[in-house]
Amino acid sequence: MALPHVTDSRLDALTSWHADWKGLRVVVLGLSVTGFSVADTLGELGADVLVVTERADEEYARLLPVIGVGLWEGSLDTVPDALVAHRPEVVIASPGFAPGHPVIAWARDAGIPLWGDVELAWRLRDKVVGADGEPAAWILVTGTNGKTTTTRLAAAMLAAGGLRAAPCGNIGVPVLDAVRDPTGFDALVVELSSHQLWYLGLSDAAGQPSPHASVCLNLADDHLVWHGSFEAYRDAKAVVYRHTRIACVYNKADVATRTMVEEAEVIEGARAIGFDLGVPGPSDVGLVDGILVDRAFLEERARSALELTTLADLAAHGLAAPHIVSNILAASALVRALGVEPAAIRTALEGFRLDPHRIEVVGTARGVVWVDDSKATNPHAAASSLAAFPGAVWVVGGQLKGVDIADLVVSRGAGAKAAIVIGVERGEVVAAFARHAPGVPLFEVDHDETGDVMARVVELAAEIVRDGDVVLLAPAAASFDQFTDYGDRGRRFAGAVRKWIEKGAADGDVAEPDEQTPRDGGA
Q: How does pLDDT run across 432-487, given as a tens digit for each residue?
């Protein structure tokens, strides 16, 4: 198969919405929400675009001809002739395309530049500018866990501080949609997955974002199949700090994130800002006697600190779980770098609520609290949940994504009252308990039908629990083996809990929910 000859000279000049994108030959891989945002943007700019995908959403496929974009749909086990014939000057891939995918490998071998949607958005960020003539400032957020919560927190804090801010990226709103929003923003808080960061790592200087502030919240095994190794996953995450202008925020409790900052190429004058749940140093944010404080963004930081909020206030709003407090500290550091005052941070926290399926109490009856943390899709996230609810009945299992769950069973599973194992990879979880926590009562749910799984989970848990217990869905695994996504898994769990509570109420032995008090960290 002949490979097209590609030069970068034209691409080097494409660093503005107002540059000449007309006729640029582009192949867009994938037609999900991200792929469509890329195709729609380039169609508006007059580029010659072909979308290549294995499966096209019907609505998106219908819209492509309207916006002047071509579509090829079929197997991508080999490189389609239509893709080669298009002679792309650049390939822009949706983040689901792994480095080893045949089309990605072909493009790299051919020397065709590979972009992700984030690079394109950075190049086009000046479509809408502020009163000062400048495009929105970018804040970048990544980490194995806590990305979405931290992104939402930072956006809420910026808004409370009087800035027009939008959360976007991996959180669900494509960055390109935010960049093209005609109302414009002062700041974009961009959540980035390791997949998106891998593509950014391929970028040259013209396409590499230069954020005002950035953070990698934590690092643990995840997405190892996609990246091929933990080292490759780590290297992708580290890209978040490149060319940061003001603040590289890192987790003092996670040495890997500090190393990333130490090794990053940043803009001269950028500072390293640490966060954790301990007493902060002079360039950190942290905790002192139950008070969240800033010792980084004030003149007298060597001898004083600024109060941000208190653990008591956070508990009143259901935000006191340790990993949520860490997210709050990280978000505070990010927005303080943009000048948001402590009072605005407090205001934002007063109105902030966690998304569904994040340590969400979905039922309280007979003295038992049922908690949905279906978003805990890897061991690191589940460890935070188990730390918030020690001694819980733990609902665990699913699609492990190549990650060994043994360390989690050793560190947290041994303290569970019991474990209820779900998912197609139950054997690995059961074996880990047999080796490392043989004293924990173990129950397997072997139902293959999605609709039966959570009903059986609740049935088993109800036989185990007593007054004062917590049942915690923190699977430490992805959901795609048995459910549509983690939200589907969480909703089915909550639905099964409600049915159990309703049945008990009909039998006359269930206390009213508002008479129960969730354990610390659960509200």
A: 999 999 999 999 998 777 789 999 999 999 999 999 999 999 999 999 999 999 99
Neighbour count for residue 54 (Cβ, 10 Å): 12
Task: To the nearest 10°, report the CA torsion of 206, 208, 212, 216.
Answer: -170
- Mean pLDDT across the stretch 136-140? 98
Question: Which two three-digit tokens encode residue 189?
Answer: 């808080």
Alpha-carbon dihedral sign for residues 401, 406, 410, 411: negative
- Distance, in Å, from the CA atom of 158 to the CA atom of 170, rounded to the nearest integer, reads 19
Query: Residue 188: left (phi > 0), alpha (psi -120 to 50), or beta?
Result: beta
CA 198 to chain centre: 15
pLDDT for res 226? 84
Taking the C-alpha atoms of 495, 497, 500 and 502 in order, what is their torsion angle to the nearest 10 degrees? -70
- List the structure tokens of 435: 């080796």
Q: What mean pLDDT is predicted for residues 112-130? A: 96
Alpha-carbon distance 420 to 422, whole Å? 7
How confident is the model at residue 149, as a pLDDT? 95
Residue 209 pLDDT grade (very low, low, confident, very high; cuts 50, 70, 90): very high
User: What is the rounded CA–CA span in Å between residue 399 and residue 378?
Assistant: 9
Cα separation, 113 vs 5, in Å, equals 11
408 to each of 204, 276, 384, 404, 413, how far by Cα in Å?
A: 39, 21, 10, 9, 6
Instruction: State how far the Cα of 318 lies from the Cα of 302, in Å rounded to an integer.
Output: 32
DSSP state of 419: E
Per-residue pLDDT at 508: 56
Q: Which residue has tokens 């643990």?
A: 220
Mean pLDDT calculated for residue range 497-511: 73
Q: In 182-290, where do the E strands start and end?
A: 187-191, 213-216, 247-251, 271-275, 284-288
pLDDT band at 131; cut points 50, 70, 90: confident
Helix (H) or strand (E) holding 354: none
Q: What are the tens digits of pLDDT across the range 347-394? A: 999 999 998 898 899 999 989 999 999 999 999 899 999 999 999 999
Secondary structure letter of residue 478 according to DSSP:
B
- What is the rounded CA–CA span in Å between residue 164 and residue 373? 31
The values of phi and psi at residue 264, to 5°, are -75, 145
Alpha helices in 183-310 (DSSP H): 194-200, 224-227, 230-238, 255-263
Instruction: Please check whether residue 523 is in contact with residue 317, taking contact to mean a CB–CB distance below 8 angstroms.
Output: no
Residues 6+ apart with CB under 8 A from 416: 386, 391, 392, 393, 394, 437, 440
User: How many residues appear in the chain?
Assistant: 523
Instruction: Please give the full DSSP string across 51-70, using - where no structure is assigned.
Output: EEESS--HHHHHHTTTTT-E
Dig out the tokens for 247 from the structure. Answer: 């603040």
Angle between helices 342-350 and 322-336 (to 10 degrees): 140
> Among candidates 259, 243, 358, 247, which has minimal Cα distance to 294?
247
